[in-house]
C-alpha cells in the first residue's frame, strides 16, 4: 500500500566518475547503476518533509556557501590571532566527497579570507588529513586550486608522517606534526554522519583530532584499544589536552543533510557545536538510516568515486547500511553489524567468537560493485556478502591494492553491469535494488524498493521523533528540549 | 598471512634522496645510498612486501608499485609453536588469540604471538615475518606493541624514523575518574570492558 501520493521520478544522474590513483580509469565506467531498467528515484525530502531547505544546491549557486560561511564566522571570536601569527586551517578529505567537493572547498577558501580580513594575518596554511589513502587530499587540493588560494601553503598530511607526542588525561597519544606547526589551529570540518559505526555519534564533531589530524598510534588506539563505544574518546582526550587548547581558536562546519547542504555553523566552543549538529543528524540522517535498516531484502549496487564503505546513498555511506542489522545510533548495542571491533571478533572459519556479534545487515543479499576505489580494507564485505565485480578493470583495482590483496578471492567478475545484476537477482532472489551512487537529494532504487521506502517512511518518521531521537540524545547527555532547530544556526 | 604480489621500484631520474621513504617503510626495505647528488633510494626486494608506503609519501613520484611475476606468501603458523604459550601471550596482552588485529591481511593475534615466540623482537621484524602492518600501515601498531610488551619486550623506535613512536593506553588503563566523568556523555567504557572480558573468558587456556 502506498500511503503518500508520490509519483516516482526519473533516476537522478550521479556526478561523473573522477580520475584518481585509487580507482579505475573513468573511461571504463560507461554504464551507471541509474541507467538500469526499472530504476527510479525517490526524493529524500518527499520521504521526510522536515529536512531543511538547501543552501546548496540552490539557485544561488556556490556563493550561498560563501555567504553562509561569512555569516557563521561573524559570531566567532578571532581576537587571539594577531597580525603575523601563523594559522593552520585543518581540513579532512571527507568534506570533498560531499556533492563533488565544491561546497567544502568554498568553505575552506572563505575561512581563509575571513581570517585575513578580521585578524590581519596572512600566514594562513591549509593542512588536509586523510583516511587510508595518503594522497587523496593532495588530489582534492589540486582539483580545487587550493594550493594557489593558500599561496602555496596547502598540503595533504598522512598518519605516517612525522608525529608529535600529545599528553592527555589518559596518557600519551600522537598527532601529525604538520597539523600543529602553527601558532593557531582552525578546525574546518563537516557534520555529515559518515562513520557512525566507528564513532557511534559520540563527540562526532571532535573526531578528526583522533583521526585525520592523528598519527597511526592514536588511530590504532581508537580502533583496537578503547572498545566499540569508547573509541572516539581519543579525539576528546587530544582535543582537551593543554597542547591543543593552547593553539585552539574555533571550528567551522559545513552542515549537510541527506538532501544537500543546509547551512554552515561555527563556534569557539566545539562541544556546543557538537550538540547542535548531533540533534540535527539524529533527526535527519537518523530517519534515513532507520528507514534503510527497515529494508527487508535488496541488492546493493556500489557506484561512486570512493572505497566500498564510503559510497553514498541519500547521504548514508554503505558501511552504515551494512552495519544496520542493529540501530547503530543506540549505544545499548555494543557492536554494529560492521565495525572493526566486530570484524576482529570473527575467529577462524569466520566463526563469531562471542554470541553478541550481529551479522552484517542480512537484508543485503548481494553486492554489485560497478565503480569503487581501493584504499580501504574491504575483504570482510566480500566474505560476508555474495559479491560481483563489474569488469576486469575494477577487479584489478582490488588486486593491486595492498589493503585488498585477497578481495577477489571472494568475489566473481561479470563483464558488464546488466549481466552482474541478472546474476545478482538469481542468487539474491529479489528484484529490489538500491544504488549507492551519491545522487544528490535522492535515492536511486528499483521501483519495487521505492514503493517499500515510501510505505515505511511515515512510521519511521514517527518512531524517530517520538522514541529514538529522545533516546539517542539521552544516552549522550544531550538536551533536546529548547533546541531551536537547524535553520537557527 | 600476507600474499605479496607487488614490489617497489625507484626511478633514479626522479629520486632526490630526501629519505622520506626510509622513514615510513614498515619493513626497513628501502634505504638511501650514495652522497650528495648521487643519493638514491634502493629497495631490498627480499624484504619489500609492496605495501606502497614509500610510493604514497614520496613527493617526487619517484616510486611505483610493480606486479611480481610470481607472488609469494609470508606467514607464521601459530600451531608450529607451543600453542599454550601463544594463548598465554595473547591473554596477557588482553587479546583473544583468534581475534583479527590487521584488517588488511586478516592477521590474527596468535600469528603475531607466534612470531614473537619464534624470536621477533620489533614491529619491523614482525611485519617481515607475518605481513601484518603492511596493508593500510595504520591501524594495527598497538596490538603488536601490546603483544611485545606482554612478552617482556620493549622495542625502541628506529632512530630518525617515523614508523612508530610508542605504546598508548588501552581501555583497561583509563582512570576510574575519567570513566565516571564521561559515562553520561556516551562513553560506555564499563560496558565495553565487560564485552572484552566476555571475549577473553571464552579462551580456555592461559590467563593472567
Ligand atoms: S621519498 Fe622519493 S625522492 Fe625521497 S628518497 Fe625516497 S624515493 Fe627518493
Ligand atoms: S614502504 Fe612498502 S613498498 Fe616501499 S620498500 Fe617498504 S615494504 Fe616495499
Binned strand content of chain B = 15-25%
Widest β-sheet, arrangement of strands of chain A? 1-17-16-10-13-14-15
- Poorly predicted runs of 5 or more residues of chain B: none
- Largest sheet of chain A, described in full? 7 strands, mixed
Q: Which stretches of chain A are low in confidence, meaning pLDDT under 50 for 5 or more residues running?
A: 1-5
Number of strands of chain B: 6
Q: How many separate helices of chain B?
A: 8
Distance between the termini of chain B: 27 Å
Structural class of chain B: alpha+beta
- How would you characterize the largest beta sheet of chain B? 2 strands, antiparallel
Straight-line distance between termini of chain A: 38 Å
Radius of gyration of chain A: 22 Å
The fraction of residues assigned to DSSP E strands of chain A is 15-25%
Tell me the total number of β-strands of chain A.
17
Sum this structure up briefly:
The complex is a heterodimer of chains A (about 500) and B (about 210). With about 500 residues, chain A is an alpha/beta fold.
Describe the protein in words.
The complex is a heterodimer of chains A (489) and B (208). Chain A has 489 residues and is an alpha/beta fold. Chain A is built from 16 helices and 17 strands. Chain A has two domains: 26-51 and 284-460, no CATH class; 63-257, LarA, N-terminal domain (Rossmann fold). Chain A has helices at 44-47, 63-74, 102-119, 136-143, 146-149, 196-199, 216-225, 233-240, 242-247, 270-293, 318-323, 340-344, 379-384, 392-399, 417-428, 447-475, and strands spanning 39-43, 87-92, 124-129, 154-156, 163-168, 171-176, 184-190, 248-257, 260-267, 298-307, 312-313, 316-317, 364-373, 387-390, 411-414, 433-436, 442-446. In chain A, helix 2 (63-74) crosses helix 3 (102-119) and helix 10 runs antiparallel to helix 16. The longest helix of chain A has 29 residues, at 447-475. Chain B has eight helices and six strands, in the order βαββαβαββααααα. In chain B, the strands form three sheets. Chain B has a two-stranded antiparallel ribbon with strand order 1-4. In chain B, strands 2-3 form a two-stranded antiparallel ribbon. In chain B, strands 5-6 form a two-stranded antiparallel ribbon. Chain B is globular, with a radius of gyration of 19 Å.
Amino acid at each position: 500500500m502506498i500511503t503518500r501520493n508520490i509519483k516516482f521520478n526519473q533516476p537522478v544522474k550521479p556526478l561523473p566518475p573522477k580520475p584518481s590513483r585509487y580507482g579505475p580509469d573513468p573511461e571504463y565506467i560507461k554504464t551507471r547503476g541509474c541507467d538500469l531498467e526499472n530504476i527510479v528515484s525517490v526524493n529524500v525530502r518527499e520521504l521526510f518533509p522536515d529536512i531543511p531547505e538547501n543552501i546548496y544546491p540552490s539557485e544561488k549557486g556556490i556563493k550561498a556557501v560563501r555567504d553562509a560561511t561569512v555569516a557563521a564566522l561573524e559570531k566567532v571570536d578571532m581576537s587571539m590571532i594577531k597580525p603575523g601569527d601563523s594559522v593552520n586551517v585543518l581540513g579532512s578529505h571527507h568534506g570533498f566527497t560531499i556533492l563533488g567537493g565544491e561546497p567544502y572547498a568554498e568553505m575552506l577558501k572563505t575561512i581563509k579570507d575571513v581570517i585575513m580580513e578580521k585578524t590581519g594575518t596572512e600566514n594562513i596554511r591549509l593542512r588536509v588529513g586523510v583516511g587510508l589513502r595518503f594522497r587523496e587530499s593532495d588530489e582534492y587540493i589540486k582539483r580545487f586550486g587550493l594550493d594557489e588560494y593558500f599561496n602555496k601553503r596547502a598540503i595533504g598530511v598522512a598518519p605516517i608522517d612525522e608525529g608529535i607526542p600529545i599528553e592527555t588525561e589518559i596518557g600519551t597519544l600522537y598527532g601529525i606534526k604538520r597539523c600543529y606547526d602553527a601558532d593557531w589551529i582552525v578546525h574546518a570540518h563537516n557534520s555529515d554522519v559518515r562513520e557512525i559505526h566507528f564513532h557511534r555519534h559520540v563527540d562526532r564533531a571532535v573526531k578528526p583530532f583522533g583521526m585525520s589530524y592523528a598519527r597511526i598510534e592514536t588511530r590504532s588506539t581508537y580502533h583496537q584499544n578503547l572498545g566499540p563505544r569508547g573509541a572516539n574518546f581519543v579525539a576528546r582526550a587530544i582535543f582537551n589536552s593543554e597542547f591543543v587548547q593552547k593553539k585552539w581558536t574555533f571550528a567551522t562546519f559545513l552542515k549537510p543533510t541527506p538532501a544537500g547542504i543546509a547551512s554552515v555553523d561555527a563556534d569557539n566552543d566545539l562541544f556546543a557545536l557538537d550538540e547542535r549538529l548531533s540533534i540535527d543528524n539524529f533527526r535527519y540522517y537518523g530517519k534515513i538510516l532507520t528507514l534503510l535498516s527497515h529494508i527487508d531484502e535488496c541488492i546493493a549496487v556500489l557506484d561512486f568515486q570512493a572505497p566500498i564503505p564510503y559510497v553514498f546513498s541519500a547521504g548514508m555511506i554503505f558501511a552504515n547500511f551494512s552495519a544496520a542489522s542493529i540501530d547503530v545510533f543506540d549505544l545499548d548495542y555494543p557492536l554494529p553489524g560492521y565495525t572493526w571491533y566486530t570484524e576482529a571478533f570473527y575467529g577462524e572459519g569466520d566463526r563469531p567468537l562471542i554470541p553478541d556479534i550481529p551479522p552484517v545487515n542480512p537484508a543485503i543479499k548481494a553486492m554489485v560493485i560497478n565503480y569503487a576505489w581501493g584504499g580501504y580494507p574491504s575483504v570482510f564485505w566480500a566474505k560476508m556478502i555474495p559479491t560481483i565485480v563489474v569488469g576486469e578493470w575494477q577487479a584489478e583495482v582490488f588486486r593491486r591494492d595492498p589493503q585488498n590483496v585477497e578481495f577477489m578471492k571472494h568475489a566473481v567478475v561479470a563483464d558488464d553491469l546488466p549481466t552482474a545484476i541478472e546474476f545478482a537477482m538469481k542468487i539474491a532472489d529479489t528484484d529490489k535494488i538500491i544504488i549507492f551512487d551519491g545522487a544528490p537529494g535522492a535515492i536511486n532504487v528499483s521501483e519495487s524498493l521505492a514503493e517499500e521506502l515510501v510505505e515505511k517512511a511515515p512510521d519511521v518518521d514517527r518512531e524517530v521523533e517520538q522514541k529514538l531521537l529522545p533516546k539517542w540524545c539521552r544516552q549522550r547527555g544531550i538536551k533536546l528540549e529548547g533546541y531551536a532547530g537547524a535553520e537557527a544556526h | 598471512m600476507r600474499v605479496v604480489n607487488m614490489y617497489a621500484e625507484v626511478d633514479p631520474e626522479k629520486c632526490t634522496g630526501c629519505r622520506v621513504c626510509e622513514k615510513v617503510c614498515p619493513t626497513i626495505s628501502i634505504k638511501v645510498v650514495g652522497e650528495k647528488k648521487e643519493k638514491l633510494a634502493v629497495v631490498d626486494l627480499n624484504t619489500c612486501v609492496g605495501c606502497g608506503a614509500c610510493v604514497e609519501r614520496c613527493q617526487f613520484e619517484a616510486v611505483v608499485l610493480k606486479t611480481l611475476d610470481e607472488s609469494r606468501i609470508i606467514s607464521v603458523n601459530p600451531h608450529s609453536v607451543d600453542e599454550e604459550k601463544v594463548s598465554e601471550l595473547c591473554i596477557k596482552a588482553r587479546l583473544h588469540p583468534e581475534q583479527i588485529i590487521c584488517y588488511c591481511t586478516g592477521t590474527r593475534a596468535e600469528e603475531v604471538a607466534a612470531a614473537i615466540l619464534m624470536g621477533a623482537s620489533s614491529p619491523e621484524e614482525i611485519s617481515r615475518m607475518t605481513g601484518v602492518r603492511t596493508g593500510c600501515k595504520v591501524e594495527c601498531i598497538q596490538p603488536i606493541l601490546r603483544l611485545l610488551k606482554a612478552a617482556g619486550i620493549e622495542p625502541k623506535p628506529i632512530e630518525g624514523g617515523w614508523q612508530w613512536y610508542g605504546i598508548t593506553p588501552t581501555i583497561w588503563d583509563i582512570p576510574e575518574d575519567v570513566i565516571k566523568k564521561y559515562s553520561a556523555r556516551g562513553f560506555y567504557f564499563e560496558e565495553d570492558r565487560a564485552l572484552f572480558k566476555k571475549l577473553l573468558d571464552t579462551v580456555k587456556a592461559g590467563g593472567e
